[in-house]
Design goal:
56% of the residues lie in helices and 0% in strands. By secondary structure, the protein is an all-alpha fold. It folds into two domains: 2-37, no CATH class; 66-99, no CATH class.
Length: 99
Amino acid sequence: MFEKSGRTTVGRRWWVIGLAAPFPGLGGIWGTQVFGSLTTGGFDDPAGESSRTLAHAEATPGRTGGDAVVLYTGSGTTVDDPAFERAVTLLVRRDGGIT
C-alpha cells in the first residue's frame, strides 16, 4: 500500500510540489488573522485545585502568589508515608520555606 503511494508520489512529484506550495503562504495569511481572535490568560478553571490554592496563597497576608513549584519524589514511597512527609518538611524548613 505505501509502496504504491510512494511510487505515485515520486512519479508525479512536480504535481505534488505544485499543489503543496501554496499552503505555507495561505497558512501565513490565515495565521495573521487569528491573532485578533486570541486572548491572553490561558485556560483557567476557577473551580480547579490550582486556582483555589492560588486564591488561598494570595489571601494570606504578605503573600502575592506562588514563588516556586517543587516536585519531591521518593523511591518506593508515597506522600502519605510519614517518613516521606518528615523528610520533605525538614528540607523545606532548612531552606526557609516554612516558618
